[in-house]
Amino acid sequence: MSEKEMQVYQKQEVRQAGEPTKPERYFVPAVDIYETDEAVHLLAEMPGVDRSGVEINLENDTLTIKGHKSGNGGSEERVLLREFETGHYQRRFTIAETIDQAKIVASMADGLLNLVLPKVEPAKPRRIEVQCG
Amino acid sequence: MAIMRFYDQPVFRNPWADLEKMRREFDALFRGGGGDFPARPGATVFPALNVAEDEHAIHVRAEIPGVKAAELDIAVEGDTLTIKGERRLETGVEKCSYHRREIERGRFSRALTLPTRINPEGVKATTQNGILLITLPKAEEVKPRRIEVKSD
């Protein structure tokens, strides 16, 4: 790829509609969304989240991805430098395409969620012959 | 290769940094958010690092989702820790249209000046769920030592 140095992605905190009652923090994960003829692919950065911590929900046209971070660093440690914050992840998308919900595949590797949302096959036009009586 | 850069400011040498840190520790205390500090903004060199210490070691954490362990190159030289690597994410499809493209790809390198002397033999690095943890055991001479008080 390019020789340009990578920049730090500054995490944005989720602005929730309701007021949170737990002292938990949610961040917006960085995503890549691309579409092929067959499916919509989604890649989301969720470091610290393991397979069991992922929650995906597709309701009507709204896709919600959630990642629950498991475990925290040692509590006995004294912080010397803190450049990133840790917390859970949450993000919502509106998907225009019709998705075959039963065929959604999700995988998690190295803190990266890979989601494949296959499109529903377009209805094939059917010609109806009119028969003479 | 890109020129290696250190942190923008000398973090461990600045006498005001301690005061600033103390202020943030107090803020965290009153916020009651489980001792979570607000991160200091302005880190621009990937990856962002969290550094903590305990009695025996210094722990350096970095969020590097999508980077394979084999693509990482970590070295300690004197009191400088360098983290180099590359993030390659292949889609595996040729024809596609992007709706969002926020995840950066490419090479990165970062250097950090360690606050104390360490034992380079015992440095360990592991990745788990996209988080890199480097544990650097402190050198014997800088570990806290208990001194017994004797009375005659």
From TrEMBL, chain A:
Pfam families: HSP20. Gene3D superfamilies: 2.60.40.790. CDD domains: ACD_sHsps-like (cd06464). InterPro entries: A-crystallin/Hsp20_dom (IPR002068), HSP20-like_chaperone (IPR008978), Small_HSP (IPR031107). It comes from the Bacteria. Residues 1-20 are annotated as: Disordered. PROSITE patterns: SHSP (PS01031). Residues 22-133 form the SHSP domain. PANTHER family: HEAT-SHOCK PROTEIN 20 FAMILY MEMBER (PTHR11527). Belongs to the small heat shock protein (HSP20) family. This is Hsp20/alpha crystallin family protein. It comes from Desulfurivibrio alkaliphilus.
UniProtKB/TrEMBL annotation, chain B:
Residues 40-152 form the SHSP domain. This is Hsp20/alpha crystallin family protein. It comes from the Bacteria. The lineage of its organism: Bacteria, Pseudomonadati, Thermodesulfobacteriota, Desulfobulbia, Desulfobulbales. Gene3D superfamilies: 2.60.40.790. Belongs to the small heat shock protein (HSP20) family. SUPFAM superfamilies: HSP20-like chaperones. InterPro entries: A-crystallin/Hsp20_dom, HSP20-like_chaperone, Small_HSP. CDD domains: ACD_sHsps-like. It comes from Desulfurivibrio alkaliphilus.
